[in-house]
Write a structure and sequence with these properties.
Strand content: 5-15%
Oligomer: single chain
Helix content: 40-55%
Largest sheet: 3 strands, parallel
Mean pLDDT: 87
Number of helices: 7
Structural class: alpha/beta
Length: 172
């Protein structure tokens, strides 16, 4: 997950609803240290492995959960765990299903040749397209702030936007 304030709020909501959250794995390029501390203060094990170690972390924890006779739902953003479900892995036995937020993640799961768990996606829902415009604007605001710290303005910078989907059009 992105470890930002909205993730913290989501985890708090789950916990208040008596839904256990045994582990949150952060995507290293999108982590606020303050959110990691807040999640840990809630008693949630929170890890931020290097990108190339996410598979290892998930495999280890999936195996542990399976050995304990429990199952889990994987809520993911980006499809980073899609390959873990191929070739008879323990993830197929331990995971009830996947909730995937992004189109890229959905495409990764769709490429999996032998996916044996359901993937619930909301990348194509109407609310997601509304959100994308705001995400795009937030990216542009963040870029404007970063440039201002360098003494430049967004108006004088040469900026390219690759992709003109929902988010790319919001950035533009």
């Amino acid at each position: 997950q992105h470890l930002l304030e909205d993730t913290r709020a989501f985890v708090e909501l789950l916990l208040k609803s008596n839904i256990p959250v045994p582990l949150v794995v952060g995507i290293p390029y999108s982590v606020k240290d303050s959110v990691v501390r807040k999640l840990e203060n809630l008693g949630v094990s929170t890890l931020v492995p290097d990108m190339d170690k996410i598979d290892d972390v998930m495999r280890l924890h999936g195996t542990r959960i399976h050995q304990e006779g429990r199952r889990f739902i994987l809520h993911e953003v980006g499809g980073y765990c899609a390959e873990l479900f191929a070739c008879g892995s323990v993830m197929r036995n331990a995971c009830i299903g996947v909730v995937e937020e992004t189109k890229q993640g959905l495409w990764r799961y769709e490429k999996s040749p032998d996916l044996s768990v359901p993937v619930l996606q909301f990348a194509d829902c109407g609310l997601k397209s509304l959100e994308s415009e705001f995400v795009g604007r937030a990216v542009a605001r963040s870029l404007d702030q970063d440039l201002a710290e360098l003494g430049r303005s967004i108006e004088s910078a040469r900026i390219g936007v690759i992709g003109f989907g929902d988010i790319g059009s919001g950035v533009a």
